[in-house]
Amino acid sequence: QDLFGDPDKIEFVPVTGANRIPYLASGKIDLVLATVGVTEDRAKQVDFSKPYFKSGVQLLVPKNSSIKDIQDLKGKKAIVNPGTTGDLGLQKLVPDAQLIKLSTSSEALQALKDGRGDALAQDNSFIYYLAQQYPEFKVVGKPFFETDWSIAARKGETDVIDWVNKNL
Question: What is the mean pLDDT of residues 47-72?
């Protein structure tokens, strides 16, 4: 209501890590509120609000896994969602890892359950939730590729970012 004057004018659109920035750029959505980590590359494409959360990426592995940290992923299969900080972080920090890129978190989790990958790399806020829900898995390693989370708007929409910052 504060932004549009009418709460019925708001439409919530589900997004994935891969489509959220293109949806924003194309006008399909006006704001991204989907755990967007602030990265240098993304800052070239969108404007960010002030940060509201800090997160890092960690690994979810089967309980009997020998993987203890990201360096153990060299030559192994890591499951990521394309365009996420897990994807970007592993490309940069463990270029020898074989990345299995799946569009949604549910597909990624299923791939880990099926044994199609050795680890799932995702924001630790989500990874710890998954470990709690699925006791056959555990969280390993220290957080890597830590980023601030912010709300994203199209480049140049400073009035929208100002409104978001005021409300944050």
Answer: 96
**DSSP β-ladder status, 53-62 and 119-123:** antiparallel
Whole-number pLDDT of residue 9: 84
Nearest-CA neighbor of 108 among 86, 93, 135? 86
Amino acid at 166: K
Report which of 72, 70, 134 is spatially closest to residue 106, judged by C-alpha positions: 134
pLDDT digits (tens, 9 = 90+) for 100-118: 999 989 999 999 999 999 9
What is the per-residue pLDDT across 3-35, written as a single tens digit (0 to 9) for each? 778 888 888 999 987 889 999 999 999 999 878
Instruction: Round to whole Å and give the CA distance between 139 and 160.
Output: 37
Cα 109 vs. chain centroid, distance in angstroms? 14
DSSP string, the chain: -TTTS-GGG-------TTTHHHHHHHTS-SEEEEEEE--HHHHHHEEE----EEEEEEEEEETT----SGGGGTTSEEEE-TTSHHHHHHHHH-TTSEEEE-SSHHHHHHHHHTTS-SEEEEEHHHHHHHHHH-TTEEEEEEEEEEEEEEEEEETT-HHHHHHHHHH-
Place of tokens 């494409």: 45
127 vs 122: CA distance, rounded Å: 6
